[in-house]
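User: Hello, beginner here. Can you help me understand these amino acid letters and fold codes? It all follows right here:
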Amino acid sequence: MKKIGIIGGGFTGTMTAVHLIERSAACEITIFNEAATFTRGTAYTPYSDKHLLNVITSKMSAYPGNPDHFLDWVMERPDFKDLDRKLIANAFMPRAIYGKYLTEVWDSALENADGKCIVNVVDQQVTDLDVNNSFITLKLDNGDSMMFDYCVIASGNNAPRNPRIKSPGFYNSPNYFQNPWKEESVLNLTQKPVLIVGNGLTMVDTVISLTEQGFKGEIHSISPNGFNILPHRHIGMKYSKLAEEIKEGMTLLEIVSLANKHIKIAREYGVSAEPVIDSFRPYTQKIWHNFSDREKTTFMSRLRHLWGTARHRIPMHSYEKLQKLQAEGRLHIHSGNLIDINENSNGIEVEYRDRNDGVTKMMTVGRIINCTGPESDFSKLESGLLKNCVDNNILKQDALKLGIVTDIHTYGIIGPDGNAYQNLFTIGGNLRGELWETTAVHDLREQAEKLSQSLASKIMAESAELIS
């Protein structure tokens, strides 16, 4: 019986295993993930019921071939069964509810297994691996080692990188929280101001969680580009004309010109840019993959924040909460760069350069929460599997250090010889360097299904060879 190791039991790893089970592949599957977040990952194991999905219910099915699967599941819940289906289809469900959904998808897969699959869940971290043509050895944080015929790295997001400041020793302070997805980041609050570093989607969840904890003090947030998050203003609206003009091999300049042309047209009729940008979505991965490294670098330095503003939006009622906090003087948004952070008896002294005024300013806070987004440069991680794999030349990163160099057709990780491994794979966020947009459920569910189908075919072909 072939053995498959899956590193990571969030959405991507879990759904890869679910599809293998449903295909009745004769194999032993071992998933490595801490018990607290198994099947749901960090994204769907929130510490607050107020953390909402950023995509409507009708688009969150775990199955590519069954687009209403999540919506149907929601409508069967006691809290929703008497509500209007179209209303719920266009609503933003709490992340916690989606986590329960994924857990039930997993439980159902196990119940329907026909005995061909053996499934193990190991509450240990994989810290290193060795790979050859015959097998892969995974090394665990408890000192044990396990061998597999195939391995899938579905490791999810890393903790954010610490911002560069003059006095990095501050990051040892108990009043600094590098990981905003842990509940302790918003617990045991005083009424001293809180500083959030970063103005993205995680910042929104953190602000809402602080108020949910009864925090009445001032909240500051800072990032180089300030606050540019938009609400969903055109739910269900589709813009189709742009797609008619997309051609294979378009340069970054041509793509930008095309977008600007159609944004101008949309605005003439009172429609903002988001539906136009959304119409790129079916083509984004191919466009990105065909860009040169120079074009990708230009995009990241000049256009990334504009793209993120148009693409990563929040529910209107979440947006209105933030607007209300700003109007009340409780939430302050800063466009600037950190210079230094020092802690003394008065609190945490933050020195930053205000990009609007062009001057250096100071603020005093009682806590700092890092919401700058997950670290993608594995060489800058303090430790762990991905850092060790890079250091040991088992895998390599793309030129922009966004993810793992991978064959996007097979999901085989490219080894040091330039060829894809036949037994070591990765999907999800680790493909960001190859595909750019690869973390939404829409992408993850398709990748999980495709990879599981490929693995099942390999297992069946090898089993047939043994029988013959």
